[in-house]
Amino acid sequence: MKLKDILELGTYGFNPNCKVEIFCMDNFEERLENEGFDEILIPQNDDAKIYPYAFLIEDSILIAMTEVDDDINEC
Questions:
Q1: In this structure, are residues 43 and 12 in contact, taking their beta carbons and an 8 Å threshold?
Q2: Measured between alpha carbons, how far is residue 60 from residues 25, 32, 55, 64 in Å?
Q3: pTM over 0.85
Q4: What 3-state class would DSSP assign to 23?
Q5: CA dist list (Å): 20 to 15, 36, 74
Q6: Where do the H-state alpha helices sit in the chain?
Q7: CA-wise closest residue to 63 among 2, 1, 14, 5
Q8: For 14, which DSSP code?
Q9: Residue 43 to residue 37: CA distance in whole angstroms
Q10: What is the mean pLDDT of each run of 10 residues along the chain (75 residues)?
Q11: What pLDDT, on a 0 to 100 scale, did the predictor assign at position 23?
Q12: Spatial separation of the C-alpha atoms in residues 46 and 57, rounded to whole Å
């Protein structure tokens, strides 16, 4: 199974056959300075902890993920 199959990109309006890579967020600032992104999708919650890795779609769209807080109990 490929990463793009797990993400079900078609349900988000992306081409299901597009290129998907894991992006190390340690490189985020450098990438912004040198190449930039066409679009950056990040959590809107200012208190959210960003996961150290994100998904890079077609070398231009970055989707950042939040870390799950194990202390939060769902009902």
A1: no
A2: 14, 11, 10, 13
A3: no
A4: strand
A5: 11, 17, 31
A6: 3-7, 28-34
A7: 14
A8: S
A9: 16
A10: 72 84 92 91 82 89 74 47
A11: 93
A12: 24
